[in-house]
User: Fold this.
Amino acid sequence: IQVEGEMSTLKGTVNSMVDQLSAFASKVTRVALEVGTQGILCSQARVEGVQGTWADLTLNVNKMASNLTDQVRSISEVTKAVALGDLGKVVNVDVQGEMLDLKMTVNSMVAQLSTLANEVTRVSLEVGIEGILCGQAYVPDVLTDNVNLMAMNWTSQAGGDLTKKIEVDLRGQIKELKETVDGMTESLSLFADEVTRVATEVGTEGRLGGQALRLL
Assistant:
């Protein structure tokens, strides 16, 4: 509309305010979409000519985006390291609320995995290489229980008890290992029975033609 005097000044002020609000809304919306939806974590809003509350809002939006970027990247760095077998990293970024819960969960997971890896490695070395057959892993975890159970069975088998098998529900490569150990135990048991039978026939009963069947 055509106005003059103070109304013209008011018109200019209102139109300027509308332009700034439009620019502000557009920039903030862009940052929200990029950070919250598209995963572009380094996005920042840059609105020229805003002051006061609008400048504060712009600053807060940028701070939020920056904090979120630092938090997500820190957690991502740690989880990537875990996937690559590096259990020495933890999330150190300063966070609050649900992000703090996530940070503590990730760090706890890394600590437990590190302890588990160390304990399983120790038991494997003791049982498989050093011959310390009573080795046990001390971590409260289902996988640890499975490892300990297998270690106990290997100890029994090494001590001559071939009646024990691994009675636990497993999957994947651990299941394959269980089946291998159980199969080995069964074969050794049959072999021991045959050797005992031949020894009894030849050495006790005097049946000199006794032969052990080939079972292995």
Remarks:
- Residues 97-130 form the longest helix (34 residues).
- The helical segments are 6-36, 52-83, 97-130, 142-158, 172-203.
- The chain has a mean pLDDT of 71.
